[in-house]
Design a protein that fits this description.
- The complex is a heterotrimer of chains A (456), B (128) and C (352).
- With 456 residues, chain A is an all-alpha fold.
- Chain A contains 18 helices and no strands.
- Chain A has a domain of 286 residues.
- The longest helix of chain A is centred in the first third of the chain and has 37 residues.
- Chain B is mostly helical and 128 residues long.
- Chain B is built from 4 helices and no strands.
- In chain B, helix 2 runs antiparallel to helix 3 and helix 3 packs antiparallel against helix 4.
- The longest helix of chain B is centred in the C-terminal third of the chain and has 32 residues.
- Chain C is elongated, with a radius of gyration of 32 Å.
- Helices cover 68% and strands 0% of the residues of chain C.
- Chain C is mostly helical and 352 residues long.
- Classes of the chains: A mainly alpha (456), B mainly alpha (128), C mainly alpha (352).
- Chains B and C meet through helix 2, helix 3 and helix 4 of B and helix 2, helix 3, helix 4, helix 5 and helix 6 of C.
Chain lengths: 456, 128, 352
């Protein structure tokens, strides 16, 4: 996209002014990065608007009501916007007993953690803000930080309800990180990579290639994952931290106005995130049930780095695919919320330690044995893989071990040919995509190809 | 002032002082950050009276050490590195720090249950 | 151009380093414990950023996951549980501050000097333009190193490093055991002891009164014979370890079997026989457990043959042998379960 912008937009603009812009100019990268950042922010911000509206509609329908109908014409689709304006207009109160600094910071901590995790989430093949080698791990780790905001809010509010909510949340999230880690390890084990792009691309082809259909254990482990994901983002029936029948509103009892809405945005952001993670890990990510774009040859080939409009359309279709799956996951979470009653705190812990952990461990062992004894699965039977086979992904280190081992391992796992990796290093990991850094003084010819792969 | 060996001057790298930070980040830069964290943690351990504050000091110290391990193992900073050993050591340190925190917290809770305070200055039951 | 002129690596390093050191200092200077924990979070987060900058992605993510997400949450939990007043602050005396500052600054001076003392530490990598992102992707190599395969050392330029190809399997196992012990120990230590409060008065005793339990002769006999057979097998395994079979003489039918057995034992790895012996001993113990009316003994009795089969399958003896052994070993267990479930009242219903 950066090169496209350079060639098609900036060079023409420069032509008007009498100058010229090369295809690798930084302007294209900056513009592409800005556009992508804008999109990413909208996934969270607009996503929250849509999800809140959706939640109200779903809740209404499940309870045999209509939900919002008036605002914005049909279906009340502007209801959330009206709510948002109301929230902004509200008075911002800080309780007298609160720790003012932490009280004010807590919502932003929550939101920042939820949003940072989006940095590593790919929306299509290679379309991630930052493609990290350990993306799955990174996302789970950063999502775990969201609890910090909640705990701080609970503690800093200076209210007993909030404190109880925060403590429940701490206990719950720390416990549920164990089964969720065990569940995520299963797809990682099958594909042999923690890179989400690699995992998604390993499931290319018909829907029988999706990892949930890989073997009975992955099928089971998906449901364990989903349960734990619901618990780890504090949705009903696991929303003990804000149990309104016991704790008024839990950790956000004392919050109002915009700060309160930040908690809400963080919650919906992480809901979308865990659903998206489920889509990539178990449901083929951006790959549709039928690989239409592969069949007509539009999709990018493996290792292709150039830009073409057909490939771009295929990618956008992949993004839509991914979004659809993730939104479906969020909708199921809403369905669960309005259907099941809330658990007691001891039941929540029992669900985690007595059911989810053993089940996940069992599935982990089962999937491991399935791989070790090489039992066939729909993926292998079909023989219709556009991507590389799992074994190739996993075993490349064996093939490459004898000669230049370590370098080849790194390259092979990324699925990039040896010559194609002129990227600098991981230093732009925690920043926006345009902040590519080369190790040396960033000369344009070093930064350019690295950006080409990321911003693409 | 320390002078680099002759061969390096030919490579375009001139005098390196202790107090100047040349833009290419080297292992030494990491070592300085690690040293600062280590010292802050050590002083924190020494001056805090709250047992949990002491615990946080220990975490800082461990992180300073970890930073050194990673810097020595990093291939981006130096030609002849520790390799993977540095990262593996850092991993073990992190894991052991988690274990240490769990035990220390259990001790702190136990102490609190018995003394209704976590001021470490009150932990003088064994004093003759 | 402006963007191209900036050394992003140095800039980001400076940013993370300043955040780490600044909030580290904030931890030291604050006396409010919760704020200390919050500053520590930011400090450790920035440190993980430094890890990412140095190319240690896995360690950076691990730092976020375990340190920031696990240890610090635990710490804040501890703060909440031990809060006396709402916001604890224990002041440090001025004398302690001065002493700490003196010791700290001298230590800092020493460490910074040491950090700059070796020349090769002060020099960056010369071929910095050739560095690829792939070089930072060490997660697979780390995983393999933890299972004692060092792919990174295969092409080590330094000849001295090559012999050190040993991996980290043993430390990994030790750390795992250590974590388990810590988990149990911490849970035991932190349990609430309600002194002076008699829980028994709060709720009725749930313990059922001891019943008279009887067992049919067949079950008793089965259990006893199982113990004897397993003990003999265990002893046999030990005996085979001590004195390998030396088969001489002609090919009589009995000798034929022994010959095959000896061949199989020869083919098996050396750890197999002692392990099998231990498993037979475990069987004996499990039978004793069943004798004393514990249901989990039966579960163990089913698991042990499966473990045996798995072990044998993983050796060169082949899967057919494993299945045979599993069937032979499972048959008496199934018989035992049938016996336990027969009779009136069944032995199973009386077990705990």
């Amino acid at each position: 996209m950066a090169q496209f912008l350079n060639v098609e937009v900036f060079s023409r603009l420069a032509g008007l002014a009498g100058g010229s812009v090369s295809a690798d100019s930084w302007m294209g990268y900056a513009a592409a990065a800005a556009i992508h950042i804008l999109f990413l922010i909208h996934v969270v911000a607009v996503g929250a608007l849509v999800f809140i509206w959706l939640e109200r509609k779903v809740a209404g329908r499940i309870q045999d009501r209509l939900g919002p109908t008036r605002v914005g014409g049909k279906f009340g689709w502007l209801q959330t916007l009206a709510d948002g304006i109301k929230l902004i207009a509200k008075e911002d109160i800080t309780p007298k007993d609160a720790d003012p600094l932490l009280f004010k910071l807590a919502p932003y901590v929550s939101f920042a953690a939820s949003f940072t995790a989006y940095m590593a989430l790919p929306f299509a093949n290679g379309w991630a803000a930052q493609e990290i080698n350990v993306a799955v791990f990174f996302i789970v780790a950063v999502l775990g930080l969201e609890v910090f905001g909640v705990i701080l809010a609970g503690y800093a509010s200076g209210s007993k309800w909030s404190l109880f909510g925060g403590m429940r949340e701490a206990a719950q999230v720390v416990s549920y990180e164990v089964p969720i880690g065990l569940c995520i390890v299963v797809p990682v084990l099958i594909v042999g990579s923690m890179n989400l792009v690699t995992i998604g691309e390993a499931q290319v082809g018909f829907f029988s290639n999706w990892l949930i259909f890989h073997d009975p254990f992955t099928f089971l482990v998906f449901f364990v994952y989903f349960t734990c994901a619901v618990a780890s983002v504090n949705r009903a029936p696991f929303d003990l931290a804000e149990a309104e029948s016991e704790l008024v509103a839990g950790f956000h009892t004392e919050y109002s106005g915009l700060r309160w809405s930040f908690f809400f945005m963080a919650e919906y952001g992480s809901m979308f995130l865990v659903s998206g993670l489920a889509a990539i890990l178990f449901f083929g990510g951006w790959n549709g049930p039928i690989p239409i774009f592969h069949m007509i040859g539009w999709a990018y080939e493996q290792g292709e780095t150039g830009w073409r409009i057909t490939g771009y359309i295929a990618q956008v279709a992949g993004v839509l695919n991914f979004m659809l799956k993730a939104v479906l996951g969020v909708t199921v979470m809403m369905w669960v919320r309005w259907t099941l009653p809330r658990l007691r705190i001891d039941q929540v812990m029992t669900t985690c330690l007595k059911y989810c952990v053993p089940l996940a461990a069992f599935c982990f062992i089962g999937a491991m044995l399935w791989k070790v004894y090489d039992v066939s699965s729909p993926h292998d039977l079909h023989g219709y893989t556009y991507g590389r086979s799992f074994a190739e992904t996993r075993e490349n280190w064996v093939l490459a071990s004898e000669d230049n081992a370590s370098r080849a391992v790194g390259n092979a796992l990324r699925g990039v040919p040896e010559s194609g990796t002129t990227e600098a290093q991981a230093n732009s990991n925690r920043t926006s995509p345009h902040a590519h850094a080369s190790v040396g003084r960033g000369t344009p010819d070093v930064t350019a190809p690295l950006a080409a792969q990321e911003v693409n | 002032m320390l002078r680099p060996p002759d061969g390096l001057v030919a490579d375009g790298i001139t005098a390196i002082d202790m107090d100047s930070f040349p833009p290419p980040i080297t292992v030494s830069h990491y070592l300085v950050v690690g040293a600062v964290l280590f010292v802050l943690g050590a002083v924190c351990m020494a001056t805090k009276r709250n047992a949990l504050g002491v615990l946080m000091g220990i975490e800082l110290v461990l992180n300073g050490a970890n930073l050194n391990f990673v810097a020595f193992g990093s291939r981006f900073l130096r030609q002849d590195t520790l390799g993977l050993d540095g990262e593996l050591m850092a991993l073990f340190v992190i894991v052991l720090a988690a274990a240490e925190a769990a035990v220390a917290l259990a001790i702190a809770l136990n102490f609190y249950n018995n003394h209704t305070t976590i001021d470490v200055d009150h932990a003088d039951d064994l004093k003759g | 151009m402006l963007l191209a002129a900036i050394d992003w690596h140095a800039l980001l390093f400076l940013l993370f380093a300043l955040v780490a050191c600044g909030f580290g200092a904030a931890v030291l200077l604050t006396s409010n414990v919760v704020r200390m924990a919050f500053y520590l979070t930011l400090c450790l987060g920035a440190t993980s950023g430094l890890f990412f900058l140095a190319g240690a992605q896995f360690v950076g993510a691990m730092q976020l996951m375990i340190y920031v997400g696990g240890t610090l949450v635990l710490l804040i939990f501890g703060v909440m549980l031990t809060a006396q007043a709402r916001f604890i602050s224990m002041k440090t005396g001025a004398g302690e501050w001065i002493l700490g500052a003196i010791v700290g600054s001298s230590l800092l001076l020493l460490l910074v000097r040491a950090g700059f003392s070796v020349e090769s530490w002060r020099l960056p990598r010369l071929d910095r333009d050739k560095i690829t992102l792939a070089e930072g992707q060490t997660s697979t190599a780390i995983g393999l190193a933890l299972t004692s395969v060092r792919v990174d050392k295969l092409s080590a330029p330094n000849e001295k490093l090559k012999p050190g190809m040993s991996g980290y399997l043993l430390p990994f196992v030790i750390v795992s055991m250590h974590l388990l012990v810590v988990l149990i120990g911490a849970g035991y230590m932190a349990r609430t002891k309600r002194l002076g409060v008699n829980r028994a008065t709060d709720r009725p005793v749930a313990q059922a009164p001891p019943r008279d339990r009887d067992r049919s002769f067949f079950v008793s006999a089965g259990l006893a014979s199982g113990m004897i057979v397993n003990l003999l097998l265990a002893v046999g395994c030990c005996w085979l370890v001590a004195k390998p079979l030396a088969i001489t003489g002609n090919a009589a039918p009995t000798n034929q079997f022994l010959l095959q057995l000896a061949k199989a034992i020869d083919a098996a790895p050396s750890w197999l026989l002692p392990t099998l012996g231990l498993l037979f001993l475990a069987n004996v113990l499990l039978l004793v457990v069943v004798w004393y009316w514990q249901k989990w003994g039966v579960v163990g009795l089913v698991i042990v043959p499966l473990v045996m089969a798995f072990l044998i399958a993983s050796t060169s003896l082949g899967q057919a042998a494993a299945v045979t052994i599993a069937l032979i070993a499972l048959a008496p267990v199934v018989l035992l379960i049938l016996l336990l479930c027969s009779g009136r009242p069944t032995a199973w219903s009386q077990m705990e």
